[in-house]
Amino acid sequence: MTRLTRATRVLATTASAAALALGVLSGPAPAAPAGPAPATADEAAPSPTAYAEDGPYGVGQRSMRLRSGALVEVWYPTRPADVAGRPEGTYDIVEYLPPNLLGLVPAGATVTHPSGGVRRAPIARRGFPLVVFSHGFAGFRQQSTFLTAALASWGYVVAAPDHRSRTMTTVLGGKAGTTTDVQDLRDTITLLGTTSRTKKSWLHKRVDMTRVGAVGHSAGGRAVENLAVADARVDTWVGMAGAATGALDEGATEVPAQPGVLLVGGADEIVPQERMEQAYVAMSAPKRIVVLGGAGHLAFSDLCEVGDGDAGLLSVAELLGVPIPANLVRLASDGCIDPELASVDAWPAVRHVVVAQLRSVLGPDQTAPALDGLVEAWPGVVTDSRSAQ
Known about the structure:
alpha/beta; Dienelactone hydrolase family protein; 13 strands; TAT_signal; hydrolase activity; lipid degradation; signal
């Protein structure tokens, strides 16, 4: 299958060397409507594909910083009129490289990828639920913009911290240590809540701290499950290709009481479906598991689409003849090689399931009809969907 890419590549040959490092991981306009009104009993139930594409809001984007110094990327809803005609932001892979690899990159070389939002656009006037996002091992805060930006378009403030104990920069620099990811996420929730309560801040009264969700990929899936155990502010969580009890965290003994969803890549060789099934069994109800039969580990991120070739960024490394650490080869390519399901074909279903779960718990849907009939609605993509109440 031919891979599609959203990446914009500058100085192609030299920029590919930078991309390699990511691959080896992991008058004024009229006022627009404030957003969708809460669903009512008289409205038709949302379909099992209702949230596959962008929602009614535009998307803004800003960076914040935790007291630890770690950066937090924030996507948030805007009025469509406030972003119309303005360019979408980008992130530069080179900025995530450790010093030992920066030396391989010629001065001025960049590799950029769409980051999903318009920088510093004004946030829409409403109190929005908060969603924190946790990236994978050797990942970074903007690794899954296909999802984080989409969530903002459906009316969520989404905040993703860099877990500096296991970012791409740290791992490729050979300095990965004991993770601080759960504390990073707790600090992120606190930061957004404090900023929302601060007069004259750009977020003043824009975050509804009574409605909080958590979403994570791979090691981030483990992190958000552990976060839900540790932090009662979290109302629901979604683990994508990763979970704590039964999958990635052998020492975990507690499971969250909050409703959770596991998204599974049926072709994932990093966190195989069998391990995710064990995690699902260990979870407390209400719970759901959704399997994307042909998807690999990186289908829940942008990483297969940053760069050219059917192997994602790994193919760039091979083209340049740059050696790749053996322990990261599988992590860099799982989900990026035919006949695995292409990321761009998995993303609509992933977006739908995550948004549907958030809406069913945080509102306005109140029930989970959009999570029914997923196998029939997504032929060849969703191969299994089960729940327990």
